[in-house]
Design brief:
Rossmann fold, single chain, globular, alpha/beta, 126 residues
Length: 126
């Protein structure tokens, strides 16, 4: 039987590399560098867990309809795999805005930077 898939969407240098941890925990990690690539990947392989960073839309393209960089991806995820668990990492300065995203989508865990290996392990445990 294949290992469960964990999708890491790495959009910034602040995204910690927990590849070793994921491997030790029995996950097959798929690392993607953009939301566009993540949405494409959903059509081929549905992850059990998605780990991504939250970036609030301060009056940019996300303002109005979308709260953050994650909205479009999470809408797609609901279509392809509503049971996928979402782990969001966020900077302390943007933590208050995650509640807006949580009002729209179920989030499994929200971790504040800097994210420790122990915190991530807790968040992605089966």
């Amino acid at each position: 039987m294949a290992n469960p898939v964990l999708c890491s969407i790495v959009e910034s240098p602040a995204h910690p590399n927990f590849s070793g941890l994921y491997r030790e925990m029995g996950y097959e990690e798929v690392r993607l560098t953009s939301m566009r690539n993540a949405i494409k990947a959903l059509k081929e392989q549905v992850p059990e867990i998605v780990v991504a960073e939250f970036f609030y839309g301060y009056g940019n393209n996300y303002a109005g309809i979308n709260v953050s960089n994650l909205d479009v991806f999470l809408h797609s995820l609901q279509k392809y795999s509503p049971s996928t668990r979402i782990v969001v990492m966020v900077d302390k300065t943007e933590r208050e805005y995650v509640t807006r995203l949580e009002a729209l989508f179920p989030l499994h865990a929200v971790l504040q930077h800097p994210v420790s290996e122990v915190a991530m392990q807790s968040a992605v445990e089966v």
